[in-house]
Amino acid sequence: MNSLKPTEIISAHDITLIDAYWRACNYLAAGMIYLQHNPLLRQTLTGEHIKQRLLGHWGASPALSFTYIHMNRLIKKYDLNAIFLAGPGHGAPGVLGPVYLEGTYSEVYPNKSKTEAGMQKLFSEFSFPGGIGSHCTPETPGSIHEGGELGYSLSHAYGAVFDNPDLIALCVVGDGEAETGPLATAWHSNKFLNPARDGAVLPVLNLNGYKIANPTLLARISEEELTALFKGYGYQPFIVEGDVPLEMHKKMAEVMERCIVMIRDFQTQARSSQERPARPMWPMIILRTPKGWTGPTELDGHKVAGSWRSHQVPMSAMHENNDHIERLEHWLKSYQPEHLFDENGQLIPELEALAPVGPRRMSANPIANGGVLRRELIMPNIKDYGVNIAQRGVTQMSNTQVLGEFLRDIIRNNPTTFRLFGPDETASNKLSAVYEVTQKAWMGSYLPEDEDGGNLSPSGRVMEMLSEHTLEGWLEAYLLTGRHGFFHTYEAFAHVIDSMFNQHAKWLDICKNHVAWRAPVSSLNIMLSSVVWRQDHNGFSHQDPGFIDLVTNKSADVTRIYFPPDANCLLSVADHCLRSTNYINLIVSDKQKHLQYLSADEAAIHCAKGIGIWPWASNDGNTSATYTSDYDEPDVIMACCGDVPTMESLAAAAILREYLPDLKVRFINVVDLYKLQSADEHPHGLSQTDFDILFTRDKPIVFNFHGYPWLIHKLAYRRTNTQRLHVRGYKEKGNINTPLELAILNQIDRFNLVIDVIERVSFLGSRAAHLRDAMKAEIIRHIEYAHTHGIDPSEITDWVWPYA
After folding, report:
1. Helices (H), 273-398
2. Long-range contacts for 73-76 (Cβ within 8 Å, ≥24 apart)?
3. Which one of 294, 405, 480, 641 has the lowest number of neighbouring Cβ atoms within 10 Å?
4. pLDDT one-digit tens code per residue, 581-637
5. C-alpha to C-alpha distance for 523 and 695, rounded to whole angstroms
6. CA 725 to CA 720: how far, in whole Å?
7. pLDDT of residue 5
8. Which domains does the chain possess?
9. How much is the pTM?
């Protein structure tokens, strides 16, 4: 890559042309909000031409298209590879305008042709039932960021450029968006950007002064304070300020070109040097423009442009006020559409020539439709990592440690298309094996002690930062631009990304079901570790499995939830998830040591089924793993889902087998949570017939669950005789507890499970009174032991499955 050598920045003639192109963008933006008919104002504007409901946001649109078309100029001049991200919410009019003018929109949606009729369709379907939304939704060509949920534009921009060395992500950050926590932390992404191997982000902070109804914070501080803030973030800020269009075009052209040249110089220097790359002071632009720039300046005695009144629809009550209609016509005609579009409604050739062509258009860049670039991971064979099971339920090991070895070799095999994301917890979550082949990405300064196990490197593929927001944003964009990744975090802290998960799930749902031209992207894989049941020192604040509930609220077309009970099952699940596309896969697996139950082959079958009987843990007939005809109807179903609940359920089954040997217990383990849902509600759900055969139609079910117990009732509410379903799970009981004590407090422990079975199986009654009483005594004894010794007794910590 060569440095860029700018010639004359921009001529007066070119400024005139780019201003005309911008007027065309602004005309389209306003037309989308207001017009249903008469798109080129070839008739006198009347109420019949105007939408009954005026929806959309005008305020940020002019600055968005202004920035977009100035990048277009540089794309053409330097043959740049670039994409555009619009951070301001409801900013679609300012993006759809240039996307339509450069032809991509008409290529994707032929009925929106570059004609008067096509323009009318574009206008009439914007923010209209059956049409498109006012964000940069998945339907928008070139978009990888919707903008509706403020705060994630910058982290998405950085995620897109990691491992895309020639890509520039032009990211407009709204000044309202800049007040959010996720955006504030995302500025630090520049500490992870390696100029030797990554692309670059050019942030443009648009200070238009107002949010919906209030001033914005950054617009009301001094220039000295503002520039000091961004210098402190590690940027070199350039300010473009004003409201006179021709003057602003000249300023923006000079500043943006300077920024692009700086970026290429930084990259060229890093890529030609043998030294460890230094972290540059990357450029960024502060674009200070009036809100609703070029729109109505005053209406009904109130200031509009340059105030909060232009945030959404600057003029309303169009059908009740003829004066407003006349004012709207005057506003729209101020852009001189008759000089911009020919008699057929197409942009005049002189202006059409300003846009890039083919895939150099930001709206047609294949990187923004990453599925077309995606290549399958080179995956190792999971059987090479499988745990040898000499005897079930005896060997203990960390499930996630085994996963770490698997991820290590995925990173080795895919050195430019896979990254591991987590908030400073890679070692804590027992994934340290990855450090055998890579390090943590780090562009900051180094201290001598960092060389002793710090695992820091500019080329590291482990992305760690104590901001789940930023990590999630990086990963989402990394996937949306055609790559692969894996995100892990503590279970209780996954709630930090609740809204980001929501938005990505909605994005995938729209892509899968409504936007056929978007190719499938790699699934978003999230692993929750350091789970609710193993918070010995963190206590109550870290005990929250509620992220699982959140996932179940989203579309069945895109969400999957897995609870592998041991290492071989975790390997099988991870292998499946990393190969999948267009899903959000949630994996819940604790990092501490756990008993191992299934061989690699058995785990593959069990996980493929998603739910199944463990014959060796059951005694409702033959206890071998081979089918015979001597099974009988069980007296009770013991079901479990999750690693800790599985162990406690097994321990309860062992007690029942010892003290109530005539009781027929069927033991069922659930890996795929959605198997409990009806088949007509989730594609993974069991049919009613399958469910009834597995769980019977009338026998009591004692279900031990990892999360909140009511979630199981929600999923299984349509099953036969649901009153027989008794669920144990986390009930917000706990603090600094031993593992068994925490289980007891929430009644997922072996003793409470035995009591539950006794109370649910009608014929037991007083026959099991002695055992029930003994279990109550065991509960008291173990709580007292925990409070005296601070640990659980060895009979608990060393418990193994007693039946070969």
Report:
1. 322-333, 337-340, 349-352
2. 73/10, 73/14, 73/18, 73/253, 73/354, 74/256, 74/257, 74/260, 75/356, 75/360, 75/362, 76/354, 76/355, 76/356, 76/360
3. 405
4. 999 999 999 999 999 999 999 999 999 999 999 999 999 975 555 555 556 799 999
5. 32
6. 10
7. 54
8. 13-368 (3.40.50.970), 382-594 (3.40.50.970), 610-797 (3.40.50.920)
9. 0.96
